[in-house]
Specification:
The chain has 616 residues and is an alpha+beta fold. Helix content is 44%, strand content 29%.
Length: 616
């Protein structure tokens, strides 16, 4: 019966303790929990609860039972072992109990999110292994309270972070929605005033090494000469000069800031709480935000952190709007100043080297001279082009050559059909013989009148015979000189008719060529007779050929929406590989000019034409 009463008493005591724990937070929670755990461990004489510090590997005691830490050394080594092994451990102590037996130290880790968040350790005078095991179980079960408390605090902390992040993003969206920097600054200070319940929030930016207030919450307009504005600007400059936030009253007792301007502002505004936070862009201070509220509601560390996060997000957008709102002349001046600082200031060694290289290159191209070569499309032609035409109307009997063949002087090119002429020749031969007989008869009969008529007819017949013989002789067309057949192919027209004057072949002499250059209209002023150059043919690109300009013709050709003049040049060397009709690029040596003038001539000429067209 007494055992049952003791059990019921322990259950009732545990229920009361659980209810009390659920109502406590912080140090009070840890003290009551540790006292409860030590009361459940038989013979407990010392207990400690250590917690991991934020963002570090260090553990610090948050509760000690009893209040004295005299026995801390007995469990310190065990705590280090638990950290290394991440599991509950029991170790025997060197000290002895009243009956001469050794005591034990028990420690158990509290793991949250796979990391040790806290460790509880208890030293007790335990002599029975069953009691030791039971005490370890009690310690393990009790750690669930701490784990639950840690998760609850973590969830609450994450919730606050998400809420603040959402507020910061919403505020940034509102700032970006404003068209001008003044409107964006007014939006920021108004929102900060509402979030932190401030009487007044001011924002200022650096200008000529001093801070100027740009906007004040709840005030669309304010006088620049007011004593209040001067005091706020002085407080902002004080924070910017020290590059750290300044609060009055101080948030931390160990703060050692210069607060003369803040004290003046507080005295002027009837003892308000003041917090000034510098604004940074790329690690450079660009301004500050000053917040003021009732003295009975001082700013806390949490307020400072929250406000710094908001300002860090918003200041970049505000600074960009301020930069965009400036006049164009100021933007250009700042850009030039920034570039000059990069060039003549410290650092930027690569940029300086590149600029020196560009300057040296520019000087070289502006002063150095080279041969100005005029490039033009070129085509190889024969110096003379002889046409072989049909001497009379007739039919093609045979064709010996065609375009591309090389012929020697007097080689037969084509023969015409002479069968009709042979018949006509026989006709006129018989006619001549007949008239000769008639002439002799008239001579024998001394018919002087008839003799004269017959003699005239005989002369006419002889002439006709000579004409027919001449046509027969001209039926064979021969090469007038050794050369190359440039055009003409009668192999597919054998037996066909030709009319008098029809072009049958074109022949160009060997080793006697002419070059036709297509020079742009804009470059004709540079071309003169007697200039020399080199010809590079597409078929023989590895071998240049020298030439001299002999004639500038007025003939023009339109190609690719440009006008070209035809310039004739004479080839100075001959090669068996050359063929009429080859094309390539000719470079005419004009004179010595500066490299920069050669490269920029087209652009300068275009500018001149545009200027003349606009001026007219």
């Amino acid at each position: 019966m007494p055992l049952q009463q003791d059990h019921e008493t322990d259950v009732a005591s545990t229920a009361v303790t659980s209810q009390n724990l659920s109502e406590l937070r912080g140090r009070e929670f840890y003290d009551l929990w540790l006292a409860t755990q030590c009361s459940l461990v038989a013979g407990a004489r010392f207990g400690v609860l250590v917690k991991r510090q934020d963002d570090s590997e260090m553990f610090q005691p948050v509760s000690i039972w009893p209040d004295s830490a005299a026995d801390m050394e007995s469990v310190s080594e065990l705590l280090e072992q638990v950290i290394d092994q991440q599991c509950g451990l029991i170790t025997k102590l060197d000290t002895e109990t009243n009956d001469g037996k050794s005591g034990y130290a028990l420690a158990y880790p509290i793991i949250v999110d796979e990391n040790i968040s806290a460790i509880v350790a208890v030293s007790a005078n335990i002599t029975d292994n069953k009691i030791l095991k039971f005490s370890m179980q009690q310690l393990q079960w009790g750690c669930a309270w701490i784990a639950l408390q840690e998760k609850s605090e973590l969830a609450e902390k994450n919730g606050k972070i998400k809420e603040r992040l959402g507020t910061s993003v919403d505020l940034l969206a509102k700032i970006l929605a404003e068209e001008t920097s003044d409107a964006a600054s007014l939006r920021l200070v108004s929102e900060l005033s509402a979030i932190f319940i401030c009487d007044r929030v001011s924002i200022g930016f650096l200008k000529n090494k001093s801070v100027k207030v740009q906007q004040i919450s709840h005030s669309a307009q304010f006088g620049r000469r007011m004593n209040l504005i001067r005091a706020i600007e002085a407080a902002m400059e004080e924070a910017v000069d020290q590059l750290k936030p300044i609060s009055l009253p101080a948030i931390d007792d160990n703060e050692n800031n210069i607060i003369i301007a803040h004290q003046t502002l507080v005295e002027q505004e009837s003892e308000n709480s003041v917090l000034t936070i510098p604004l940074y862009v790329n690690q450079d201070a660009v301004g500050a935000v000053t917040m003021e509220r009732e003295i009975n509601e001082p700013f806390t560390r949490e307020d400072l952190t929250y406000c710094e996060s908001i300002c860090a997000i918003a200041v970049t957008a505000l600074n960009e709007k301020r930069e965009n709102d400036r006049l164009l002349i100021y933007k250009i001046a700042d850009s030039v100043k920034a570039q000059l600082v990069k060039i003549f200031g410290p650092g930027q060694l690569l940029l300086k080297c590149l600029i020196l290289i560009l300057i040296a290159t520019g000087i070289y191209f502006y002063t150095a001279k080279t041969t100005y070569n005029l490039s033009a499309d070129a085509k190889l032609k024969g110096a003379v082009l002889r046409a072989v035409v049909a001497p009379y109307d007739g039919y093609i009997d045979s064709a010996r050559v065609r375009a591309g063949d090389r012929v020697k002087e007097n080689d037969t090119l084509v023969t015409l059909d002479v069968r009709d002429f042979n018949l006509e020749k026989l006709k006129w031969i018989s006619q001549v013989e007949k008239l000769k007989r008639q002439r002799q008869e008239a001579l024998a009969g001394r018919d002087r009148a008839g003799l004269n008529v017959i003699s005239a007819q005989l002369d006419q017949a002889k002439i006709q015979l000579e004409l027919v013989e001449m046509k027969i002789a001209r039926a064979v067309l021969s090469a007038p000189f050794s050369g190359t057949v440039v055009s003409g192919d009668l192999s597919q027209r054998l037996g066909g008719t030709v009319a008098q004057g029809d072009l049958l072949f074109e022949i160009s002499p060997l080793n006697d060529y002419r070059i036709d250059l297509m020079v742009k209209e804009t470059r004709m002023a540079d071309v003169e007779t007697g200039q020399k150059g080199l010809l590079y043919l597409s078929a023989i690109p590895e071998k240049p050929y020298k030439f001299t300009i002999i004639r500038i013709t007025p003939t023009t050709i339109s190609k690719d929406k440009q006008t070209f003049f035809m310039v004739e040049a004479e080839l100075q060397q001959f090669d068996k590989e050359l063929q009429i009709g080859m094309e390539g690029i000719a470079q005419v040596e004009i004179d010595e000019r500066k490299i920069i003038s050669i490269w920029s001539r087209d652009f300068i000429d275009w500018l001149r034409l545009q200027f003349w067209s606009f001026s007219s």
